[in-house]
Input
Amino acid sequence: MAKNSLSIIDNRTGKQYEIPIEEGGVIRASYLRNIKTGPDDFGLMSYDPAFTNTASCRSKITFIDGEKGILRYRGYPIEELAERSNYLEVAYLIVKGELPDRKHYLAWEHNIKIHTMVHENIKNFMQGFRYDAHPMGMLVGTIGALSTFYPDANNIHDLESRRLQTRRLIGKLPTIAAFAYRHALGFPYVYPDNDLSYTGNFLSMLFKMTELKYKPNPTLERALDVLFILHADHEQNCSANAMRAVGSSQVDPYSAVAAATAALYGPLHGGANEAVIRMLMEIGSPKNVPAFIKAVKNGERRLMGFGHRIYKSYDPRAKIVKRIAYEVFDVTGRNPLIDIALELERIALEDDYFVTRKLYPNVDFYTGVTYQAMGFPMTMFPVLFAIPRTSGWMAQWAEMVRDPEQKIARPRQVYTGENLRHWIPIDERPEPLMREDAVSDRI
Ligand code: CMC
Output
């Protein structure tokens, strides 16, 4: 019997099966299909709602050790990248697998910057949104609309096409995001200024008014760049999974990125930082923190910005964001909500409820207060997440497209509905079928 294997005895039949254990701790769920009671039996399958213990792919992009609080892109620790690199270099690393040399970095920067403009019709398209449209909704719709401008993007098996769409998306996201921001204010959209850095140009498109040339504050420009590095990828999270699942139908990457952006919009994912600020504003003062914590422990509330599916220790990104927050406050002035956040963290980290459940601050806990100090409205927070995550989504998508083991994503289900029934004319249907409580769980 192979040492790296799992022996299973099916007590229904008495048969013994041997399942290989791969890569130090992985079994293929498809092996379970061999475990049957007879030829007509479908075989066993695993049930794993929300994929809490199922690997959906092999990936070389991002490594996380949630117990130890480790995050690495292509092997490089997030702390080193945040300290020494810049977002465009990290995007190159994530998409291409290696850090660029100077020549390749300059070519990459040029190739991204020549794609910062959008077609005028994209601008007109965005002007069609209502004055109070959520910028994340505008982003989802506009990224989806981009697919109609680049029909060549459906050549997903062509390497050059994939590279081109990747550069286009990384280049255009800040432009669309800034247009969405200015739309809400009723200000004219600002065209890209490619003399500036990736982040500096984004700040210019957001905040430029009548000056001929916008000069970004270097501290805020660097802070945003580091925040972009921290958000560039996070392995198989909800939006990366959406990117892969939708992309697995072989749709063009703009449609798949629109789907990933929609996944990011939710309050349990990229919308969490907005939810954190709303929570901090509602708490109102550090003295109200104990009462809020009590409500969380009673299950009445959720401490937004705390807890993570993977991290069971302090999210390494949250530590860096906390430092960045103070660098930003040195320029903008202190956001008073930070005092409530610090008190929440202090009390939560000492409280048995949070300690036993291993609930620690995640990346979103301190990003909101930082973005708010920089002048961003809350509705822009998930947009600031989507811009850098585009490089991660494109890398995840390209990895999926190239992986010969991947197919259209199509999970199984455990059917719990009715057995065979036959249609009955409407006037003959018995009363109970029409009762509200009988149908209430169906939508
Ligand atoms: N506040 C209070 N209790 C919590 C929290 C929280 N933020 N998070 C988890 N718990 C409790 C939960 O009630 C459960 O308790 P019990 O065992 O008594 O039922 C236990 O901890 C395990 O939680 P879970 O919901 O099974 O964990 P999950 O892995 O399904 O959820 C999460 C992960 C991030 C959705 C969740 O922690 C959460 O809702 N956090 C708040 C929202 C948030 O900050 N989201 C941003 C995530 S990081 C950025 C990103 O990935 O986009």
Remarks:
- The first strand starts at residue 5 and ends at 10.
- Residues 237, 268-270, 272, 296, 302-309, 357, 359, 362-364 surround carboxymethyl coenzyme *A (CB under 6 Å).
- The first helix runs from residue 78 to 84.
- DSSP finds 18 helices and five strands in the chain.
